[in-house]
Design brief:
single chain, about 70 residues, alpha+beta, 2 helices, 4 strands, about 35% strand
């Protein structure tokens, strides 16, 4: 399923099981959602998650993501 905008695609991704199972992603703040990749920031303002999207047939689709693991204390 594709979406008309990147924002719609990101909102749908945040409702998927992949997102809901990751407790560490729940408090992340999205950066600029007008272009791909969309970066999500942690409380320090550091990029914690990067979501790549592609445009296919006038629709935006999540193509993949990369997540950082926080340094252990």
């Amino acid at each position: 399923v594709g979406f008309a905008t990147i924002e719609e695609a990101i909102n749908a991704f945040r409702q998927e099981e992949t997102w809901t199972l990751r407790e560490d992603w729940q408090a992340l703040t999205p950066g600029d959602i007008s272009e791909s990749p969309v970066e999500f920031l942690d409380e320090r303002g550091w990029v914690y998650l990067s979501v790549n999207l592609v445009r296919l047939n006038d629709s935006w689709l999540v193509n993949g993501y990369e997540s950082c693991v926080p340094a252990s204390s």
